[in-house]
Each structure stands twice: as C-alpha cells, then as structure tokens.
Predict the structure.
Amino acid sequence: AEERKVGLGAGVKSIRGSGAHVADVIRRSNATWRALEISHQETHSILLALLSAERNGAALCKTLWTQPLRESKGYEKYRDGFSLHGADRYLADEIFLGKRDGFFVDIGAADGLPPSNSLLLELCYGWKGLCVDPQIHHTNHRPSCSTVHTAISATEGAAKLWHVASPDGKSLSVLESAISNEHIDEIAAAVDMFGAKKEELHVQAAHLPAILDTLKAGREVDLLAISVGSGMKDAIKGCDIPSVRPAVVVVGTELCPPADIKWAEDFLTREGFVKRRRLPGSLVFQRL
C-alpha cells in the first residue's frame, strides 16, 4: 500500500509540476501505473491531475484509450468510454454520428468524472455544456462546462436532499420531496443492515429553463442526460422538456421504481420522442 502511494504521488506530482505535455507524462508513467493496482479513488485523483494539466483535453482523449490507467482496478468497465455500459460511446457513434461542438446538459453530474454520459463528448468531440448537481462538495473539474449547484425539480426553492452512503463507497442522493414510501423503507433498511450513513442536506431546487436563461445558454440542447436515481420523475418534470426541447434524452434508470420508468417512457413518447435503445441502467430517447 505504501509503495502504491509513493508511486501515485510521484506520478501526480510530475503531472502537476513539470509542465510537460500530458501525452509525454502518460508515456513516462506507463511502467509505474502498470505495476500498481490503482484503486477507483486513486484513479479519480490521477484523472483530476490530467484534466488540470491539459485544459483542452485534446492530448488526453487521444491517449486515455490505450494507456494502462484505463485498465486499472475499478476502471476496466470504462474501457470504451466514460459511462456505464457504453452509453456515451453509443451516443457519440450511433446517435450523434461523430457530431462536434454540440451542447449538453448533464443533471446529476456529481464531480463530472466517470461514470459520466457527457465527458466523452466534451473531451473527444469538443462539446460544451452544463453540469448540474446540488451538492457543493462535488466540485466540477470539467474544462468546457458551466457548473450549477442546484437540484432540478418540479418544485423550486429551498429543498432537503437525502444522501445515503454505504461503507463500500456506493451512494444515493435524492430530494426528500421525490422519495416514495417504498424508498423510505429501502433507505431505512440499508442504514440498519449495511451500516449506511444518511445525511440530510439543505439545497436549492430550480427549473432547468430558468437556469439556462440565467446563464444565457439558450435552449438549443443536443443532449439532456438525467442521472438522479429514484428522483428521475421529479427531475424530468423540472426540466420542462416542452420548453427546452432537447434533441436526445438519456434517462438513468438505476434505483428507479418500475412505475416511474414507465411514466418516463409514456411522457417522452407523448412529447415526440422515440425510444432508440434500452441499455443496462439507462434509456435513450431521440426526438422525431
């Protein structure tokens, strides 16, 4: 463990301090990283250093697919992209057909690092966008994004956010107003059985059109990505999709009640979308 820390620290220090091109740093560090069992959290630290060193991301996106960091412990599932189960690669290749310079809104973006449905589009295709997450400790590290620390909800104003974290690092955050009785029972069981910790955070909630207007970002949204767990239905309502009219919507379905998933499919169909693909943990819709 101590050897890992020394190697990791040296690699990150060289990236931050040498001023060298990221591609060169990666090549010099390959042997070190290959010899280490780098954990998921340690890989986050390396990615942060890389993004800080290479603001435009051009060199980073050309090397991430081949260097050993992408195959390190905890990150092997992102080998073909930055999202779970290849959603971002499917979007880039099959939906947007390599489109460059698009605009995305990523709701529930957390710190902007993997898993992410929008990071690939930003780094490899020059997209810009808006990352939205209510938790202020989720500092965003995305070079071409605006960041807003708020929740997207049908109800604007002060809100209470439940954040539940288990000892193995998994977590769930959802607005109290969006929690069903079923999920209250599930959260209570997780706290009792698995030693999960529940925090109640005070956050602000807003409608998406109001945020776009405040930022003067316009309402031409190519991709709307929503990954808020069981708060999905409330977030969709807060997006005001008839007003924003995104071209493509990706809805994360993990931890969502089946009735809410069915509601989302029916709602988006009525709004003129067709379901293009069901992936593990997400649904992809495209406007006709």
About this structure: The two ends are 53 Å apart (CA to CA). The chain has a mean pLDDT of 75.
